[in-house]
Design brief:
The protein has eleven helices and five strands, in the order H-H-H-H-H-H-E-E-E-E-E-H-H-H-H-H. By secondary structure, it is mostly helical. It is a multi-pass membrane protein.
């Protein structure tokens, strides 16, 4: 079987898994409203089959590219989403709570969908990525981040169950803002897909921070470009011109995400005439808040030491091999340290200060925001050694 055929089979397995997980949301939704176990079992069967297909994608792609498929944004975010599915199955085995799947699987699908907008082509690894320690580092970070992300889902469930989302307060506004951010990501997936299918790429020439000529290929309409950017014909382009120390192309994608996401969120609000948190709160009516709080805490207890290994220890070993230094204050390294310190503080406040319930839920949500910022914004916008997507 040729490499192209294996890659095609791999992509088909991932796509089928995506469809099965999308379908699984329905029985999980019915399970939280029903006293019977039929819907729950159906949702679990679909999830297990989807997870097996996701692992098949990963193994087949690894075989085709001859290295662990975690070396670019498409591969990393896809693996992150796969590990989130696996993390839910682990948590379900321990706690038997199908409602966690109802809120975790959509997040997993959003992450995989987000990853799918990036280039899927197989390219040779740059020298700094040609290390087994890269594989160990990135896979451990993805798995630990997925486990930590479970606490985000259970934190959302806890807040929906305990807060009166019909009343205006700082907590309800903050919870609705989280829903808005999720819609923004969905908007990004949608607008990226539409531009890829309907418009031609635009080649833009500009000078980078070092003063060297560089070319960027825009798949979305160029709203934001670097100073002095021109088309191939020499024409000025873009509505806003920014410093070349920021990746204008990737910032352009983020701006488009917020534009489309805001429009999508507004449509949902206009049609339903209710905040999203009010719409989905009934799904948590039978939830035991204390159990969700316990799962949030346990997810952090499991994920934190794994992140310390993958995000710091293994990363330093790889950095020494790739760049001959253990630590260099690269933006990605700094934010990995911030993530580590944040979750260390999370456990400190939980164990010594008695922060439970709503406080734990908000800490878990903020922690997920830090993970997403580290894996998305730092990689895409802030120039550094990890900007390999």
């Amino acid at each position: 079987m040729s490499t192209e055929q294996i890659l095609s089979l791999s992509s088909n397995a991932l796509f089928l898994a995506f469809i099965l997980l999308l379908i699984a949301i329905l029985p999980f939704g019915l399970a939280v409203k029903s006293k019977g176990k039929m819907f729950k079992r159906l949702g679990l069967v679909l999830t297990y089959i989807a997870f097996a297909l996701q692992l098949s994608y990963f193994i087949l792609r690894w075989n085709a590219v001859e290295h662990a498929p975690v070396s670019n944004m498409y591969e990393f975010m896809t693996f992150f989403g796969i590990m989130l599915t696996g993390s839910f199955l682990i948590i379900h085995y321990l706690y038997k709570q199908s409602v966690v799947g109802l809120f975790t699987i959509p997040v997993s699908l959003i992450i995989i969908g987000y990853g799918s907008v990036f280039a899927k082509e197989v390219t040779p690894l740059v020298p700094s990525l040609q290390s087994h320690w890269l594989t160990i580092h990135v896979m451990t970070v993805a798995f630990s981040s997925a486990i930590l992300s479970i606490s985000f889902a259970t934190g959302i469930i806890y807040l929906l169950r305990t807060l009166d989302v019909t009343k205006k307060s700082i907590s309800t506004y903050a919870l609705e803002f989280v829903m808005y951010c999720l819609v923004v990501v969905i908007g990004f997936i949608g607008v990226s897909t539409v531009f890829n299918l309907t418009t031609d790429e635009v080649n833009i020439h500009f000078e980078n921070a070092q003063g060297d000529g560089e070319k960027a290929i825009y798949t979305m309409m160029p709203l934001i470009v670097s100073k002095g950017a021109t088309t191939e014909s020499g024409e000025s382009i873009g509505m806003f011109k920014i410093t070349n120390t920021v990746d204008a192309k990737k910032l352009n994608s983020i701006v488009w995400a917020f534009i489309v996401g805001t429009i999508l969120y507004s449509i949902i609000r206009l049609v339903s005439r209710k905040p999203i948190s009010v719409l989905i709160k009934p799904l948590t009516n039978r939830v035991q808040p204390n159990l969700m709080d316990e799962i949030s805490y346990r997810a952090v207890v499991i994920g934190f030491p794994l992140f310390a290994l993958g995000g710091l220890l293994f990363a330093m070993i790889w950095a020494q091999i790739a760049w001959s230094r253990y630590w260099g204050w690269d933006p990605k390294e700094v934010w990995a340290l911030i993530t580590f310190l944040y979750y260390a503080a999370f456990l400190h406040f939980r164990l010594s200060k008695g922060w439970e319930g709503e406080k734990t839920a908000w800490l878990a949500i903020i922690g997920f925001g830090i993970i997403v910022f580290n894996q998305v914004f730092v990689n895409l916008v802030i120039a550094g050694l990890h900007s390999y997507a």
